[in-house]
Design brief:
Pfam family, one: Zn_ribbon_PaaD
Strand order of the largest sheet: 4-7-6-5
CATH topology of the largest domain: GMP Synthetase, Chain A, domain 3
Protein name: Phenylacetate-CoA oxygenase
InterPro entries: Fe-S_Maturation_MIP18, FSCA_dom_sf, MIP18-like, PaaD-like, Zn_ribbon_PaaD
Number of domains: 2
Organism: Pseudosulfitobacter pseudonitzschiae
Distance between the termini: 60 Å
Number of helices: 4
Helix content: 25-40%
Shape: elongated
Strand content: 15-25%
Structural class: alpha/beta
């Protein structure tokens, strides 16, 4: 008979924390379901308090983002379904979210989904004022025009490609 060595409390805590992180890596953004909250940079931290409570820190994409309530609920549901009952979700506004936090993989997922991803370097004047060429995510043409500063959500602008004539959202630089 082979016996397994006992786990230390520290090992058990680390395993629980890693399990919570793996669970949270599956929580999707409700407005862009091809992206997880980690992909988009909303998930800022997952830590464990001294009492074993998992703390999940999320940052809104902008202060009035209506999806944050739903994201907090989805985080709580995912943890509860995984058997992690001792948890809390904290909203952190500082530092403010920026499109630079969107992963490179997420930018490609956006493009494949039909949304033009934001350019990197959100602190540039060109990025902030949409003074740059936005490439069509459908056909790759750079001959595009802005139709409206606001698209399907406030964080996106509506564009149209002059080449394929298809409308598309552009995820604005913030």
């Amino acid at each position: 008979m082979v016996s397994t060595p006992p786990h230390s409390d520290a090992e058990d805590r680390q395993a629980l924390l890693e399990h919570a992180r793996a669970v949270l890596d599956q929580v999707c953004d409700p407005e862009i379901p091809v992206l997880t909250i980690r992909d988009i940079g909303i998930l800022r931290d997952v830590a464990m308090d001294d009492d074993g409570t998992i703390e999940v820190v999320i940052t809104p994409t902008y202060s009035g983002c209506p999806a944050m309530g739903m994201i907090a609920i989805e985080v709580e549901l995912a943890l509860a379904k995984a058997g992690i009952d001792a948890h809390r979700v904290s909203l952190r506004h500082s530092p403010p979210w920026t499109t630079d936090w969107i992963s490179d993989d997420a930018r490609e997922k956006l493009r494949a989904y039909g949304i033009a991803p934001p350019k990197k370097g959100s602190n540039s004047k060109r990025a902030l004022f949409s003074d740059e060429v936005i490439t069509c995510p459908k056909c790759g043409a750079s001959d595009t025009e802005k139709i409206s500063e606001f698209g399907s959500t406030a964080c996106k602008a509506l564009y149209r490609c002059r080449n394929c004539r298809e409308p598309f959202d552009y995820f604005k630089c913030i």
